[in-house]
Amino acid sequence: MVSFLRKSKKPKVMVIGLDCAAPELVFDAWRDRLPNLRQLMERGIYGDLMSSIPAITVPAWSSMLSSKDPGVLGFYGFRNRADYSYDKMSIATGAAVKDKRVWDYLGEAGKQVIVVGVPQTYPIRPVNGHLISSFLTPSVEKQFTYPNELRYEIDRVLGGREYDVDVPQFRTDDKDHLLQQIYEMNDKQFEVVRYLLDNKPWDFFMFVDMGVDRIHHGMWKYHDTTHPRHEPGNKHQHAIRDYYVHLDWQIGTLLERIPQETTVLVVSDHGVKAMHGGVCVNEWLRREGYLALQEEPEGECPIPFAEVKVDWGKTQVWGSGGYYARIFMNVEGREPQGTIPAAQYEGFRDELAEALRSIPAPDGSDIGTQVFKPQDVYRQVRNIAPDLIVYFGGLSWRSVGSFGYDDVYTFENDTGPDDANHAENGMFILVKPRDKKGGRRGESRHLMDVAPTILDLFGLPIPADMQGQLIAG
User: Fold this and answer.
1) What is the C-alpha separation between 237 and 355, in angstroms, rounded?
2) What is the CA radius of gyration of the chain?
3) Best CA proximity match to 399, nearest among 241, 276, 273
4) Which residues pair with 429 in a beta bridge?
């Protein structure tokens, strides 16, 4: 249960990140089953937290903690075009983050920080305190802590058990094994987090739990009675609820350790919704005449886009798969074999956007697809952005970049079992030390509001280039 027992004269801030946590579950459906989160809500303010565009882990957490949009940050997902060639992509690890995040500003101000599991913290960079990297860490055989010696302390805390930066196999049909992995990761991480709270100095503490995201993607159809593939009465129907309950209990073990003068902020980077199916974006582009292949794809479905032979001299557009679609245009003078005259770029892009919005559901109805131009949604567009970002069905449909399907629609994920997509709104709960009674805020806040709010809680100036506003209590 919530208890701010210890006394401290200096302000402290604890941020508890729950990747993919759904406001409708925490605030409404399971509120009474989550006593620690409920007490935080009763004391402070809470509400929806609008995600970045795109609404995915990378770039959302870095956008939140730098208060910069993805265009300013210069990456638009996990994988980004490294140049204007057709095949060179780069992974947005922590090395892609060139802007300061909130703990960098705090460290420069002399504040002690502890950062655990925040996405895009690998490769390791020094901080004024302690850091454990996140799920993009290739292996704990690599340096995954700062200082490096912290890894040996973790070994001792866990009694030789290997620390988990992620669930090794969350795309699996073995749901019992998935649950086992999620709980093991959760228990190990919270054991380490409690050790850090008890043994290391800190003014700012942040921890992100990835288990919520992994259980949503792996088991949403068992929970959501409106999911197209829901199985009534299945044995895993309450697995997600039970994990939230377990997570709430774990959060309680952190709250009982923090000083009275601690502000607590609980945040998620995006929400969750049922995945109704996938739109085979490159197959659709081929059928509509935008994309040409030198020969029919051969191999077992799904056939990755990288393995087909594209006739670039006859191709105008291609796309990438994922929870959203990244659409790239083959422009003269920009791409090596560009086919779209540069002077026709905007007109062509507008027509393409309308064609993508018009892709219907299999029954012919409008699925409500949203199409974004980077220049319209970002303050600045750095590096190589997609020409268009597409939310098929408002994120109820996945973008499938592979070939080998008989139709432009599929109901199987091409990267492994996955029941859920992301929703545009995550959540926040903000509780200041002297807050007694709060309430739900009707207006959504934006995740870029988090970093300036944290700096303000420490009485530090807010950099002029931060894009967010203060979350007012």
Assistant:
1) 39
2) 23
3) 276
4) 46, 266
Residue 171: the pLDDT is: 86
Q: Name the amino acid, one letter, at 267.
A: V
Q: Is the pTM of this model over 0.85?
A: yes
Residue closest to 338 by CA, chosen among 308, 353, 356, 318: 318
Q: How far apart are the first and last CA of the chain?
A: 23
CA 454 to CA 463: how far, in whole Å? 12
How much of the chain exceeds pLDDT 90, in percent? 92
Long-range contact set of residues 159-163: C-beta below 8 Å, sequence gap at least 24: 161/188, 163/132, 163/188, 163/189, 163/192
Q: How far is 188 from 308, CA to CA, in rounded Å?
A: 42
**Structure tokens, 387:** 């020409």
Residues 6 or more apart whose Cβ sits within 8 Å of residue 344: none
Region 12-273+422-457: CATH code: 3.40.720.10
Of residues 275, 271, 267, the one with CA closest to residue 219:
275
* Per-residue pLDDT tens digits for 440-454: 998 899 999 999 999
Say what the pLDDT of residue 436 is. 84
Q: What single-letter DSSP state applies at residue 343?
A: G
Strand-pair category, 420-423 with 12-18:
unpaired
DSSP 3-state assignment of 146?
strand
With residue 375 as reference, give the H or E element that holds it.
helix 374-377
Closest to 165 (Cα-Cα) out of 197, 124, 203: 124
Q: What is the DSSP letter of 26?
A: I
The structural domains of the chain, with segments of one domain joined by +, span 12-273+422-457, 277-417
The per-residue pLDDT for range 330-347, each reduced to its tens digit, is: 999 999 999 999 999 999
Averaged pLDDT score across all residues of the chain: 95
Which residue type is seen at 372?
Answer: F
DSSP for 263-303 reads EEEEE-S-EEEE--EEEEHHHHHHHTTS--BSS---SSSSB
Q: Give the torsion through C-alpha atoms of 375, 376, 378, 381, to 10 deg.
A: 0
